[in-house]
Write a structure and sequence with these properties.
alpha/beta; ABC transporter transmembrane region fold; Rossmann fold; Aminopeptidase; 3 domains; 7-stranded mixed beta sheet; 23 helices; 17 strands
């Protein structure tokens, strides 16, 4: 029954798991089925032995004296009535008790899981949750005691009726002997009959108790079959279609969708087409239905009206297993099972060789990290992968999808909330992953959206707009509004010839809180500089507050002071994680000059610098800047390597000031090049591994107060 239940639940639609309580599912899978099991296995032998005892006893009774046997059996009907009454009471109590057990299991699952426990600690809700648990547990205990008490009065009544039988036999036997109604009857026969009747009542009582126990089990059966009788609404059709999905076109034909029949429609008329091999981005306000749109492709949900077609075939006509084999999905929250890295990777392809696994990890820029662990690919990831950072989990999730090698790729905000990873490394991995595949990306990062072949804007249940970044900005509609609020970029407006708009600092990041550094923030910046001892020791300098103040106030000759910025990047806890000094429209119009850039030490090796650099390029491109330039001390080898990894190259210009030599690095920001698309008849090539992200320039920490280094 457990096997059948597990298999049945596996194929239930996604909507089942979004509505049913996890505690309810666990209780029915374990407690209910185990309860039925104990009743059946524990009473089967009793049934056989008790039936045998009843039959042999009845034969003996009637062979000695059929008259006294009938007298002894008169009591048996009286035993049936309390049995039926007790069965009804216990059925009701068991149903209530199991419902409360569901509630208690749900409470345990929610508050003692990793995420629930963290939430409880952060909101100091331990006492409140304990009181809630005590209340539910008391109700479960009280229902259990009620069930026990109901069995007690049942046994008392049964005992009274069982004592009535021997009294009647003694009375009838004595009457027959005194009045000589049965000359063959003796005192010994009467005594033997009483003994046999007592021997008969015990197995009869046990058999009647079985009815009560089975009635109790009926409550569990009802709950079990409530699940087993539910039919999956998303099933594979017989002889389902298996079209070639290589660079398949995805078409949404006037799709309408609601999560159930009573709710309003989430999507009312979604209509667009993704040509084969292209990458489309979907953006829109929160709750507009972006994730719902992509979840219709692998049939996690079915449309209410219209159709979703892949390679010209309605997804409802696909063989369901084949359809999902063709689709690879990377979600915002990477889920890992509690096991090793290798176990989680092989979930995508159980028979994968180590060569295939390592190649997938190189594409996802995670191979070197894994090799750096003491146990390598046998490293335990912990419950839900929480022994790894968010970026490491995300890249493992990407490697798993690479190993699957899907024809269609769906990225549901795969990088939107990842401050602590190398954005460049992830983008490199995604770029390799999307080559030759039809891809749909839900993204909140401008640098991701700008790479899309086309952008679809979802609002009000429809595709409100679609086009390129420039076309949608020019249209001045929903995307423009998102551009202003969500991406916080500067609005393009009329300027005099040759004049660039002031650089918008907020365009530098959609993950960090970007603030202009003022005199009030200088102590935090100075602390970051001071703890970056090794870097300054290599340069033979010592950071001072005076030098920091001078750097903040120094503006290159001929530059408008309004174009000089010292920018701080803060995390969600308000900690300063990086500082950048930049000047716009310098050294020439349309250029941005980076004076210096530091990342907090405890944030290094997590790609913060690379991510900010990628956002810098996207912001410059969005605002019309085409050139980036910086000077860096010649002795800062690690910093030079970092900027070269960001696409900067030495210009050959070398300067010397205060006895320290510096070199100039620069890079252009070309228009977005079209992505490489593999034709269907072109053989697949193993993707070259992306270069591993290099460490950010030496910098140390944010605001005062030590933070532990993540290991």
């Amino acid at each position: 029954m457990k096997n059948e239940m597990y298999q049945h639940l596996q194929y239930m639609p996604h909507s089942f798991f979004t509505t049913e309580k996890q505690g309810d599912i666990v209780t029915r899978m374990n407690t209910d089925i185990s309860g039925v099991s104990s009743v059946i296995s524990g009473t089967l032998t009793q049934i056989v032995s008790n039936v045998a005892t009843v039959v042999t006893t009845l034969v003996a009774l009637f062979s000695m004296s059929w008259k006294l046997a009938i007298v002894g059996l008169v009591v048996l009907p009286l035993l049936i009535f309390p049995t039926r009454s007790a069965g009804k009471v216990r059925l009701k109590l068991v149903q209530e008790s199991q419902a409360k057990n569901d509630e208690m299991n749900q409470l345990i699952n929610e508050t003692l899981s990793v995420s629930g426990s963290l939430l409880m600690k952060m909101f100091t809700a331990e006492a409140r949750e304990y009181d809630r648990f005590v209340g539910v547990n008391e109700e479960v205990t009280e229902l259990s005691l009620k069930e026990t008490r109901s069995g007690s009065w049942f046994r008392v009544v049964m005992g009274m009726f069982m004592q009535l039988g021997p009294l009647l036999i003694y009375f009838a036997g004595g009457l027959f002997i005194i009045r000589n109604l049965d000359p063959t009857l003796t005192v010994g026969t009467v005594t033997a009959t009483v003994t046999l009747v007592n021997r008969l009542y015990r197995p009869v009582e046990s058999l009647l108790n079985l009815q009560v126990n089975f009635t109790r089990s009926l409550a569990m059966f009802t709950r079990i079959f409530d699940y087993l009788d539910r039919k999956s609404t998303i099933v594979s059709p017989e002889n389902g279609a298996k079209p070639d999905c290589e660079q398949a076109t995805i078409a949404y034909d006037h799709v309408a969708f609601g999560y159930n029949d009573t709710d309003d429609l989430v999507l009312t008329d979604v209509n667009f087409t993704v040509p084969g091999g292209q990458m489309y981005a979907i953006v829109g306000p929160s709750g507009s239905g972006k994730s719902t749109v992509v979840n219709l492709i692998p049939r996690l949900w079915d449309v209410k009206d219209g159709s979703v077609r892949v390679a010209g075939t309605d997804v409802r006509d696909f063989d369901l297993t084949y359809l999902r084999e063709c689709v690879g999905m990377v979600t915002q929250e990477a889920y890992l099972f509690n096991g090793t890295i290798l176990d989680n990777l092989r979930y995508a392809k159980p028979d994968a060789t180590m060569e295939e696994i390592e190649a997938a990890c190189r594409v996802a820029n995670i191979h070197e990290f894994i090799l750096g662990q003491p146990k390598g690919y046998d490293t335990e990831v912990g419950n839900r992968g929480l022994k790894l950072s968010g970026g490491e989990k995300q890249r493992l999730s990407l490697a798993r999808v690479v190993l699957k090698d899907p024809k269609i790729l769906i990225l549901d905000e795969a990088t939107s909330a990842l401050d602590s990873i190398s954005e460049s490394a992830i983008q490199d991995a995604l770029e390799q992953l999307m080559v030759g595949r039809t891809s749909i990306v839900i993204a909140h990062r401008l640098s991701t959206i700008l790479k899309a072949d086309r952008i679809c804007v979802v609002k009000g249940g429809v595709i409100a707009e679609q086009g390129t970044h420039e076309e949608l900005l020019a249209a001045g509609g929903v995307y423009r509004e998102l551009y202003e609020t969500q991406f916080r970029q500067v609005i393009e407006h009329e300027h005099s010839e040759g004049e660039m708009p002031a650089f918008d600092l907020q365009g530098l990041s959609t993950c960090h809180d970007v603030r202009a550094i003022t005199q009030d923030n200088l102590p935090d910046v100075f602390w970051l500089m001071r703890t970056n001892r090794r870097y300054y020791r290599e340069l033979g300098e010592r950071p001072t507050m005076a030098a920091l103040t001078t750097a903040m106030e120094t503006v290159p000759a001929g530059v408008n002071p309004a174009n000089h910025h010292l920018v701080g990047f803060y995390d969600c806890e308000g900690a300063l994680v990086a500082v950048m000094d930049l000047t716009s429209d310098y050294p020439r119009a349309g250029s941005v000059y980076i004076g210096w850039f530091m990342v907090a030490a405890d944030q290094q090796h997590q790609g913060i610098g690379t991510q900010i650099a990628a956002d810098m390029r996207a912001a410059c491109q969005a605002q019309g800047y085409t050139h980036l330039e910086l000077r860096i001390p010649e002795a800062a080898e690690e910093g030079i390597a970092f900027w070269q990894a960001q696409g900067f190259a030495p210009t050959g210009e070398r300067t010397e000031e205060n006895g320290r030599a510096s070199i100039t690095l620069a890079r252009d920001i070309p228009p977005l090049a079209p992505r490489a698309v593999r034709t269907s008849d072109e053989p697949k090539q193993d993707a070259e591994p992306s270069p591993q992200p290099r460490r950010d320039p030496n910098a140390t920490r944010g605001p005062r107060g030590e933070r532990k280094r993540r290991t």
